[in-house]
DNA sequence: TTTAGCACTCTCGATTGTTTAGTGCTAACT
DNA sequence: AGTTAGCACTAAACAATCGAGAGTGCTAAA
């Protein structure tokens, strides 16, 4: 809608950068005097003031009230993360810490993501989250079953996106190996390649015909399949370290906090927001700049997790607009790399050393 | 530690009850005048004052400051819920609402609990939660497997507490039906009846001997088994409707809210607290009166969910001390009954009418 | 045993003055 | 033309004061 970054003089950029960073550190509006004093800018506070006034009219800064300092606007933060930010070089100690925390070998993607979101939260001191993105029109590529007892068995589906899901099916009729084998064969023949929406009455009827009209069984199974597919479709969101939000003054008033908690409850908005992005890089969503107006006064930073060329999840953190972007970006990038590594490396022995 | 309820005159009880209920409604300290005016007590404010002073010295009331009214103490709330509370009769409408909301037929316990905690939150307007309690020394009673592809299979354990858990096991070596069948047989012979702590090196060695020394496979499997058992041991806690807390002034200050959020993060304390109780009835934990000092200024109400004579979970709500106990107790009781019903009734057809 | 009456205490809200931080503007300076 | 010193101005933050209101405890009378 307005000025692109090239229009800004180097000095303006420098000033904006200084203001953003000071504000991130201190949390309070920063004034011209502070900039002149603490910085390499060799000009007086009056000059800074003039520049600040211009930056404000360009939309990069805001003034809470007449006699306060300036605060970066969302647009200001955006420019900062896109072009002004200096890459944060993680210390060896920090990298060691990530490796240490992620050392626990886990096999389930869910658990790895969960753990990673906790680690992200601890390392950045913001609230962490992990999602498995929405995946539309997932279909089943293979069915498998395992008998538990006369009244229950496990139904396993392998989905087109590589996910595997299981469900405990309980029946009040009896079932045995033979019936189950027939069921499995029938499913693999008749109910493969459908997504949740395509499971129709006619599919059920053909399946029922194939299985001597055992409608109880067919109903139970189809219901489970439908549920599993829906779950795969609808994504997942887990949050950790919620209490960390409270240390930031922007979340002590119930307004902002409520919006955030509400968004976490509903999950949909955040899942939508993240599911629609499909890169490999760390993403930064600042306030409600996105089409989705989930988060008004918070920033959401996340990195997609890919495995075998597919986006299988994402981890990220959420915090105030004045987030320590440099550190967060570096941390998530590193952590994300660590996870991809975990997911793609061949399985090792348990780790009983000699 | 002090006065039992029989020492209280009927009038004192009536006054205490009136104060508690007024405070629950209004949230503010209630004074002698208010009681005299609005109530059936036929005596003057001065008399009420005298009684209130006594109730305070007995520990049932507290005074925020000299010229404020009285507020029930935790002990006061306790007496109220234990002996003063009038049973809340749910309206037909409310009962219909519960049935409506819980109508969705789901088979997995996890999902039912999850849904129920959401419903509890909606109906009571407090924060809801669902737990699967800790279960110590769970053992495996049966193993089952299902091949997915050459590099992965599903491992299923049926646990001594009736739970069924599955894990996707990935290998970089190849595996086939035959190997899997041998593995399954060996597991069912050698690794049955052990809890997480009893999985030792010697078990692994005997298993490995049985399986032509395939240590990669054995390691992966035993690790998964260990993980599953640990998970079964350690319980689960899910929270819903967190944002509802914010509407109660007692949670607008970061102190209380932080404590609660922290407790939800750690989960342990709350799981401990609830796991140690094994009745059938709705339980009320007021503040940190319990040995576990998790929640200082909140009340936790929950109802165990039983299935086949075993406690398989619990649902509840958490909110301010001045919770609408009557309503909450009735709601949870009803909702709990509804769930037990769901869990124990024979499975129905999918619901295609006619 | 109850109650009317009153003095006392404490909070809360409004009002006011003071301090402080930071601005915008102008006029002088390089 | 860009920079800077200086100054008037603004708005918040803070502290002190004041009166009103609510509710108590106590006393003395019923």
Describe the structure.
2 copies of one chain form a homodimer. The first copy, chain A, is an alpha+beta fold. Chain A has helices at residues 10-26, 32-38, 45-57, 74-84, 92-101, 109-124, 177-190, 201-210, 215-234, 254-266, 268-275, 325-344; strands spanning 61-62, 71-72, 127-132, 140-149, 152-159, 164-170, 236-240, 283-286, 298-307, 310-320. In chain A, the strands form 3 sheets. A 5-stranded antiparallel beta sheet of chain A has the order 7-3-10-9-8, with helices on both faces. In chain A, strands 4-5-6 form a 3-stranded antiparallel beta sheet. A two-stranded antiparallel sheet of chain A has the order 1-2. In chain A, a hairpin with an 8-residue loop joins strand 1 (61-62) and strand 2. Mean pLDDT of chain A is 90; it is low at 1-5 and 347-354. At the A-B interface, strand 4, strand 5, strand 6, helix 9 and helix 10 of A face strand 4, strand 5, strand 6, helix 9 and helix 10 of B. The first copy, chain A, binds a DNA duplex (30 and 30 nucleotides) through residues 29, 31-33, 43-47, 49-50, 52-53, 63-70.
């Amino acid at each position: 809608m307005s000025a692109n970054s090239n229009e800004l003089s180097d000095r303006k950029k420098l000033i904006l950068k200084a203001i953003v960073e000071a504000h991130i550190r201190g949390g309070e509006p920063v004034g011209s005097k502070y900039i002149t004093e603490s910085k390499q800018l060799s000009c007086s506070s009056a000059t800074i003031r003039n520049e600040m006034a211009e930056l404000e009219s360009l939309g990069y800064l805001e003034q809470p009230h007449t006699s306060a300092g300036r605060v970066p606007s969302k647009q200001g933060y955006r420019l900062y993360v896109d072009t002004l930010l200096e890459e944060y070089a993680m210390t060896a100690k920090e990298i060691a810490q990530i490796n240490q925390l992620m050392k626990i070998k886990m096999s389930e993607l869910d658990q790895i993501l969960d753990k990673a979101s906790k680690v992200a939260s601890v390392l950045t001191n913001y609230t962490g989250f992990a999602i498995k993105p929405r995946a539309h029109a997932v279909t089943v590529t293979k069915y498998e079953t395992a008998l538990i007892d006369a009244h229950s068995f496990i139904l396993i589906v392998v989905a087109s996106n590589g996910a595997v899901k299981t469900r405990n099916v309980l029946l009040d009729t009896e079932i045995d190996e033979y019936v189950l084998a027939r069921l499995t064969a029938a499913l693999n023949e008749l109910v493969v390649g459908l997504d949740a929406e395509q499971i129709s009455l006619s599919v059920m009827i053909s399946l029922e015909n194939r299985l001597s009209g055992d409608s109880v069984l067919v109903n139970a199974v189809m219901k489970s399949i439908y549920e599993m597919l829906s779950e795969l479709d609808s994504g997942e969101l887990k949050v950790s370290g919620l209490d960390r939000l409270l240390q930031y003054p922007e979340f002590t008033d119930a307004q902002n906090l409520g919006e955030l908690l509400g968004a976490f409850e509903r999950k949909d908005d955040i899942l939508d927001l993240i599911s629609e992005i499909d890169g490999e890089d760390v993403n930064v969503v600042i306030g409600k700049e996105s089409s989705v107006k989930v988060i008004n006064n918070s920033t959401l930073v996340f990195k997609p997790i890919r495995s075998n060329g597919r986006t299988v999840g994402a981890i990220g953190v959420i915090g105030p607009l004045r987030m320590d972007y440099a550190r967060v970006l570096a941390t998530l990038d590193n952590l994300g790399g660590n996870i991809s590594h975990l997911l793609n490396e061949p399985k090792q022995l348990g780790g009983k050393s000699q």
